[in-house]
Design a protein that fits this description.
The chain is an alpha/beta fold. The protein is built from 24 helices and 13 strands. The chain has helices spanning 2-21, 23-51, 57-74, 76-80, 89-110, 127-136, 143-158, 170-198, 200-203, 208-215, 223-230, 232-247, 252-263, 304-311, 330-339, 349-352, 361-364, 383-389, 402-408, 412-425, 462-488, 545-552, 589-604, 607-610; strands at 279-285, 296-297, 300-301, 316-322, 369-373, 394-396, 431-436, 494-500, 522-528, 534-535, 540-541, 574-576, 582-584. Strands 1, 4, 5, 6, 7, 8, 9, 10 and 11 form a nine-stranded mixed beta sheet that branches. Helix 11 packs across helix 12 (232-247) and helix 13 (252-263) crosses helix 23 (589-604). The chain is globular. The mean pLDDT is 85.
Length: 611
C-alpha cells in the first residue's frame, strides 16, 4: 500500500513538473485540439444537414485534417506574443467559437454560411430573427461553447505554472512560429493532394498545379462548399479577395463581356401580350413551398384559396419555379422580381449594394403611383433603402401594424393584408403596389397564434404541421384581401402576381414533409387577371418573372428587360441556380449560367449607376 502511494505521488510530482516546465506547449496542444474540433464539427454538421445523412469516421478525419491548418494558423499569435500578452490569443479563440456557433444557427435555414458583412447588421436583430435562431437551436450546438469553456479552465490552471516575467528571445519565438506555419502548410498540402488524387474530375483532366490554380479561384456553388473544401482561413481570405476585387472599377474586359451578353438578349418593344390592366399588385409570399398547393391533410385542403386560384382556367401558374435566392433570401427574391437581375452568390445585395439606380418595375411604369406594404422596419435588411432604389415612392411598414398585432394577437398576415387594403383603397389608378408577407417565416418549432385542426393531425413532423398552420392562415387572409379588392372595384382592373420569395425546408428532413418535392427547392408563381391561361410544367427561374410582368403590363417600351425570359415569348424549360449548376434541359442553359456572372459584374461594378 505504501509503495502504491509513493508511486502515485511520484507520478503526480512528475506530471506537475512536466506541466510546470511546458505550460505554454500544453495549452497550445489543447487549443489546437479545441479549434480543430469546433471547425470540424461545424463542417460535419453542415454536410449532414445538406445531404441528409450521417458522416462516416473517415470523412470526419478528412474534414479534420483540413481544419488543422486553420487551428495552427490561428495559434501563431500565441507563439509570437510575449508571456504577459499571450492572453490576447483568447480574442481569436472566442471569435472563432462565436463564428462557428452563429453559423450553426444560420445554416439550417439558409443552407450557406452567414457572410462576414452580416455579423455587424445589428439593425436586423428582432423577434423574427431571434425566433428563427431558437427554432434552429439544438442541444448539440452547446458543444462549441462547452469546448471553449473547458479550454479556458485548462488555461486558468496552466497560467498558474507559467512565469509571467519570463521572456523568450523574439528570434526563438519567430523560429517556433515558422515551424508552426510549416506544419500548417504541410497539412494543407496533404489535404489538397488527397482531394486531387481521390477525385477523377481533377486528376484525369488536369495536373496538380492546374488544380491548385483553378480550385482556389473558381466560384463555388456556395460559400459552405468553399469552407468545407479549403477550410476557414482560406475561406476568409477568399471573402477578403472578393471584397477587394469588387472595389476595383469595371475593367474593359468585363465591360465587353457584359455588352456582348446584352447584345444577344431578346429585343422587342411590342405589347402583344398586354393584359390591358391599369394596376399591378405584386404579392411576394414568405417561404411558400410548391408542395403546399393542392395538398390535403386528413382529407382537408390546407390552402383552398391558393388551390382555386392555381387551378383556375384563367390563371398563369407554375409550381415548378426553382428558387434562385441566395444569402439575401427574402431580399434576394424581392431584388429579382423588381429588377430582373440575379442575386450575388456570397453576400446579400440589399446590404452591400443598396444605393445604385437599378432598373425596376416601378420605373418601367413611371406614370403609376408606387407603394410598398410590408411588416418590416425600413432599416431591416435595408428594405427601405432598396425599395427607394427600385423607384417606390411610399413605404408602409412595421409601425403601421403594431396596434393591430397588439390587439388581435400575433396574426401578422392578417395585420399586413388589412393595412394593404387601407393603403390600396387610397391609391388612384394607375398604381403599382408591392405587398410583402411575413407570417410563414421560419422557425416552426412554435406557433405565435392559436392552433387549428391541422395541429391535431398525426401526419408529418410538428415543424411541418406548424408550417402548414402558417400557410393556412396566410391563405385565409389572402382570400379576404382579394374579396376586399373586388368590393372596392380594383380587382378587375389589376394584374395580381403572387410569388414565393424563396423555398423553405421547414424541418430539413425529406422524411418529415410530403414527398411531392423531394429536393424541397420549388416555389409557386401565379398571375391573376392576365386574360389568358397557362400552366407551366417545366422549371423556370425567379428571374423570369420580371420580363413576364413587363409583357403583361404593356411596358415593353422600357429598355431593360432583365436577364431572364418572358414566359409568354420563350419556352423556358431550364433554370440556372448558380454559374455552374442548372435544372432542366433547354438551349437556354448556357446563357442562364452566364447570366450569373453578368449580373455579378453589373451589380458589384455599379453598371447602372455609371449609365
Amino acid at each position: 500500500m505504501k509503495t502504491s502511494v509513493i508511486s502515485f505521488l511520484s507520478r503526480f510530482s512528475n506530471a506537475k513538473s512536466f506541466i510546470s516546465k511546458y505550460p505554454n506547449a500544453i495549452f497550445f496542444a489543447l487549443a489546437l485540439i479545441t479549434l480543430t474540433y469546433i471547425f470540424t464539427k461545424t463542417d460535419v454538421d453542415f454536410t449532414s444537414i445538406l445531404y441528409h445523412k450521417k458522416i462516416g469516421f473517415s470523412s470526419i478525419i478528412s474534414h479534420g485534417l483540413c481544419h488543422v491548418f486553420d487551428a495552427l494558423i490561428l495559434l501563431i499569435p500565441f507563439v509570437l506574443l510575449p508571456q504577459r500578452f499571450k492572453w490576447l490569443e483568447w480574442i481569436v479563440i472566442v471569435l472563432a467559437g462565436v463564428w462557428c456557433f452563429i453559423q450553426e444557427l444560420y445554416f439550417p435555414y439558409y443552407f450557406d454560411l452567414m457572410p462576414f458583412s452580416s455579423f455587424v447588421l445589428v439593425q436586423n436583430i428582432d423577434s423574427t430573427l431571434i425566433d428563427s435562431a431558437k427554432s434552429a437551436f439544438r442541444w448539440r450546438h452547446l458543444m462549441i461553447p462547452i469546448a471553449i469553456t473547458l479550454l479556458f479552465i485548462a488555461y486558468f490552471v496552466l497560467r498558474k505554472f507559467a512565469d509571467k516575467k519570463s521572456t523568450q528571445p523574439f528570434r526563438r519565438s519567430l523560429i517556433n512560429a515558422a515551424i508552426v506555419l510549416l506544419v500548417a502548410v504541410c497539412a494543407k498540402f496533404y489535404t489538397d493532394v488527397s482531394i486531387y488524387n481521390n477525385d477523377d474530375d481533377y486528376n484525369r483532366k488536369m495536373t496538380f498545379a492546374e488544380y491548385m490554380a483553378k480550385h482556389y479561384t473558381v466560384i463555388q456553388v456556395t460559400d459552405y462548399h468553399y469552407y468545407s473544401t479549403h477550410g476557414f482561413i482560406t475561406y476568409a481570405f477568399s471573402c477578403m479577395a472578393r471584397t477587394i476585387k469588387q472595389c476595383i472599377p469595371i475593367t474593359s474586359a468585363e465591360k465587353r463581356q457584359v455588352e456582348s451578353f446584352l447584345s444577344r438578349q431578346p429585343r422587342y418593344t411590342d405589347n402583344t401580350y398586354s393584359a390591358g390592366k391599369d394596376n399591378l399588385i405584386l404579392i411576394i409570399v414568405e417561404s411558400l413551398n410548391s408542395w403546399v398547393v393542392n395538398l390535403t391533410l386528413d382529407g382537408k385542403e390546407i390552402t383552398p384559396t391558393l388551390n382555386a386560384l392555381f387551378n383556375d382556367s384563367t390563371t398563369i401558374a407554375t409550381s415548378n419555379m426553382i428558387a434562385q435566392a441566395k444569402n439575401g433570401r427574402s431580399s434576394d427574391g424581392q431584388f429579382m422580381y423588381n429588377t430582373g437581375l440575379l442575386p450575388l452568390m456570397s453576400q446579400p445585395v440589399a446590404m452591400s449594394y443598396a444605393y445604385d439606380d437599378y432598373p425596376a418595375l416601378a420605373k418601367a411604369l413611371p406614370h403609376h403611383v408606387s407603394t410598398v406594404v410590408c411588416c418590416d422596419k425600413p432599416k431591416y435588411w435595408n428594405i427601405g433603402e432598396m425599395m427607394e432604389c427600385y423607384g417606390y415612392k411610399t413605404f408602409h411598414g412595421n409601425d403601421e401594424i403594431q396596434d393591430t398585432l397588439s390587439s388581435n394577437g400575433y396574426y401578422i398576415d392578417k395585420a399586413l393584408f388589412e393595412n394593404a387594403t387601407r393603403v390600396i383603397n387610397n391609391l388612384k389608378s394607375p398604381f403599382i403596389a408591392e405587398v410583402i408577407t411575413m407570417g410563414m417565416h421560419c422557425g416552426y418549432d412554435n406557433l405565435a397564434f392559436k392552433p387549428t385542426w391541422i395541429s391535431q393531425s398525426d401526419k408529418y413532423t410538428p415543424q411541418v404541421r406548424n408550417y402548414l398552420e402558417k400557410c393556412a392562415e396566410f391563405d385565409a387572409q389572402l382570400k379576404l384581401f382579394l374579396e376586399r379588392l373586388k368590393q372596392s372595384g380594383k380587382y378587375d382592373n389589376s394584374l395580381i402576381v403572387i410569388a414565393s420569395d424563396h423555398h423553405e425546408f421547414v424541418d430539413h428532413s425529406p422524411q418529415g414533409r410530403p414527398s411531392i418535392d423531394p429536393e424541397g427547392n420549388r416555389c409557386v408563381m401565379m398571375i391573376l387577371g392576365a386574360k389568358q391561361s397557362m400552366k407551366i410544367d417545366g422549371p423556370i427561374g425567379q428571374v423570369d418573372i420580371y420580363p413576364t410582368i413587363l409583357d403583361l403590363m404593356g411596358a415593353n417600351d422600357y429598355q431593360w428587360k432583365g436577364l431572364g425570359n418572358s414566359l409568354l415569348r420563350t419556352p423556358v424549360h431550364s433554370v440556372a441556380t448558380s454559374p455552374t449548376e442548372a435544372k432542366g434541359q433547354s438551349p437556354l442553359v448556357q446563357r442562364q449560367k452566364q447570366a450569373w456572372d453578368i449580373s455579378r459584374i453589373m451589380v458589384t461594378k455599379h453598371w447602372f449607376k455609371s449609365k
